[in-house]
Amino acid sequence: MTDSNARGIFPPSVWGEIKLLSLRSFDHHSGVLSVVESEIDIPFLARRIYYLHGLGPDSARGGHAHVNLVQFMVAIAGSFTVELERKGVKREFQLNSPREGILIPPLTWRELHHFSDDAVCLVLASDLYMEDDYIRDYEEFSKISSSDKETT
To answer: Is 64 tagged catalytic?
Structure first.
C-alpha cells in the first residue's frame, strides 16, 4: 500500500501527526480482548508486524526515523518510554497499557528506553523492512525535518 492510499482513510489530522490512539477493548470475565484492525483502528494496512522483548531497564532501541514508513506501537506487556521528535517538537510518552498505542508518522525520530523487565513492544508497520527507508543519522534527520517544516 502506498502512503497516498492510506491517507484517504483517516483525516490528515490523524495521518500526519503523532497521536495516542485508544484501542477497542472488550472486557469479559475470562479476560480482555483488545483489537487493532488495519484501516479501521489504524490509518494504514499493516504489512509488517514485529515485537521487541527480553529488554531490560538499561536497554535502548530506536535511534532512527523513517522516510515513508508509518508505525503503530503498543506496550502489550510491561512499560517503556517513547521519545518522539517531529517538525522540531519533542514529545515523551510512557506506554504501559495494551489498550492504547502511538501512531508514529514518517519523518519522526524515535528513541525507546526505560523498559520494565516484562516489557513487550508490539509494532505494526505500513510496509516491509527496507533499509533505504531508515534515517539513522540524527543530523541528517534534523536537516530533512527542517526542510519538511518549511513546506507544511
So the answer is: yes
